[in-house]
Amino acid sequence: MPKSHPTKELLIETAVQLIDEFGPQGFTVDVLLEKSKISKGSLYHHFTDFGDVIEQAQVARFGRSVDEDAEQLVALLMSSTSLDDMFSKIHLLVSNATGESRAKVRLDRAAIIGGARHSEKFAQALSVEQQRLTDAFADLIHELQNRGWISQQVDPRAAGTFIQAYSLGYVLNDITASPISSDAWTQIVESVIRSLFTAK
Question: How many angstroms separate the CA atoms of 48 and 103, rounded?
């Protein structure tokens, strides 16, 4: 995908940094312009309004978290040498995905998705990033099916979506008054994955 204009890229990158620090409503257009050293006229040449900048920065943030997840999953599972090794690596993946260090990433992703509810343009841009992740996971599932480690009856895209859902769904536990342990969640997810992926 070709890069956009350098000024636009700088504004998006600066907005990403500001969102990471203050949240999407935690700064003004003047703060963005001051930090990026870009003029207001240039901003409105590349974006329809300040909200458009925020949406495109949120898409960029979402895309980065997508890339991190896909790269980690592919690296770990493609290095598996056996079915047992694959399941030990799945244990590591589930534990990492539901760990405390990933809580902010989970909540950010849920917030970004929710933010697209009232903007068709935003939702469309997010759908492209989300499709990249689902496709990467589906390609990995297909490869593991070719190795004979996952049942051919499993739909790769459905499996890829499930893998994403167990992590994102843990947001519910992040916000509950009496959370379950990450270990308890990992045990449930692993049990489902084992029964689903090894069924003939």
Answer: 33
Q: Which long-range contacts (CB under 8 A, 24 or more apart) does 148-151 make?
A: 149/80, 149/83, 149/86, 149/197, 150/197, 150/198, 151/196, 151/197, 151/198, 151/199, 151/200
Q: Distances from the Cα of 55 to the Cαs of 17, 24, 131, 143, in angstroms?
A: 14, 9, 18, 35
Burial class (CB in 10 A: 0-12, 13-18, 19+), 132: middle
| pLDDT per position as a tens digit, 171-190 | 999 999 999 998 999 999 98
* Nearest alpha carbon to residue 140 among 50, 70, 92: 70
Element (H, E) at 174: helix 171-174
Write the DSSP symbol of residue 47. -
Q: What is the pLDDT of residues 99-113, one digit of tens each?
A: 888 888 899 999 999
Tokens of residue 72, six digits: 């980690």
Q: Please classify residue 10 by burial: count the beta carbons closer than 10 Å to its beta carbon, then call 0-12 exposed, 13-18 middle and 19+ buried.
A: middle
Cβ atoms 191, 199 nearer than 8 A: no
CB contact at 8 A, 97 and 65: no
The pLDDT tens digits for 133-177 are 899 889 989 998 998 888 888 999 998 898 888 888 899 999 999
**Which of residues 77 and 56 earns the better pLDDT score?**
56
